[in-house]
Amino acid sequence: MAKYGSSSLAKKEQQLAYKLLLPAFIILILIAFYPLGQVFYTSLTDKTFATTKETHFIGLENYKELLGITIKELKPIIDEETGEQKIDPRTGKPQYQRPIRVLPRRPRLYRPLSQFQIFGKRFVIGASNPDFISSIWNTLVFTVLSVLLETILGLGIALVVNSKFKGRGVVRAVMLVPWAVITVVSARMWQWMLEPTRIGLFNTVFDKLGIGDGNIAFLSTPELQLPSLIMVDVWKTTPFMALLLLAGLQLIPDELYEAADVDGASKLRQFFSITLPLLKPSLAVALVFRTLDALRVFDIFQVILAQKRYSMASFNYYQLINARNMGLASAIGVIIFILIFIFAIVYIRMLGVDADD
Predict the structure, then answer these.
(1) Angle in degrees, CA 116, 119, 120, rounded to 5
(2) Going by C-beta distance under 8 Å and a sequence separation of 6 or more, which residues neighbour residue 4?
(3) Alpha-carbon dihedral of residues 273, 275, 281, 286, nearest 10 degrees?
(4) pLDDT tens readout for residues 132-167
């Protein structure tokens, strides 16, 4: 009888819990799931932003437009007189067919994205939307390099400010200044410093040091664009990583280091045997938060490079605001959501972030 009464009470408590949670579930559905579902549906249409044009359901055409990729072989150009492959007189390299000659034009137009050579044959990679494919690559490179540098530098800063020295509180406050600056403001500031003439700080300093001619186009040269953006992001976000890692260092008991000193362990041995293992949960959480934030990077690309080079988020903005292609922009948003969701699940499992940590 007592068992039955206990079971009945547990069921009533469970029902009460569901009733109390019901308002939260309704609000969550209204502010999260409904808009997300609306974006998914819009991505399957040709809807145009801010217009009265009739909307049609087009299925997966937006996704095919964004992710359409093909690879075609480029045939060498043969000299009819000698029967040998022609050589470009300007570059001295063998000549091949123009990519536009071999890439499909139907059912959609493919444009050249890049070329590669393997087993003596040359191939061209074509994309129906090369700007979006490039934006994926730009975002991934930016994420990997910026997060790696921010983690290394942030850990170094956290170790320094965690040690005891005079003025430690002031140093901890000052290190947060770059992170406190609004991203748009810091982007404009760095844009001035990266000016392609001696007006820019870096060109002025390099000119004084005899490096370059004082006219290095950091933001116009394709090879320097991503490194410049990574440098800006590292300057701004490293303090955030340092702050998260400092919080983790504060949780490590001092008694462990005192015992290690008694045993004669060096500082390097203490770092790898005590600090790094015990810092792993905080480091994993910091990496997850920072990486997912970097995958959604928008402001730095948009403010500094605009349409010179896209991230996934800035290309989404361009399609929605400039091109007014709301269907395509929604499809980009869905792709970003899926990529980040998959990345988050894999990343969390690899880093071992769980409830026990």
Answers:
(1) 75
(2) none
(3) -130
(4) 999 999 999 999 999 999 999 999 999 988 888 787
Burial of 236 (0-12, 13-18, 19+ CB in 10 A): buried
Q: Where are the beta strands (DSSP E) in the chain?
A: 69-74, 111-118, 121-127
How many angstroms separate the first and last alpha carbons of the chain? 41
pTM over 0.70: yes
What is the DSSP secondary structure assignment for residue 165, as one 8-state letter?
-
- What long-range pairs does 39-42 form, CB within 8 A, spacing at least 24? 39/330, 39/333, 39/334, 40/330, 40/334, 42/326, 42/327, 42/330
Q: What angle do CA 133, 139, 143 make, to 5 degrees?
A: 150
Q: Which two tokens stand for residue 248?
A: 């983790």
Residues in Cβ contact with 214 at an 8 Å cutoff, skipping those fewer than 6 apart: 197, 198, 203, 204, 206, 207
Which CATH number is 131-351's, of 3.40.800.20, 1.20.140.10, 1.10.3720.10, 3.30.700.30? 1.10.3720.10
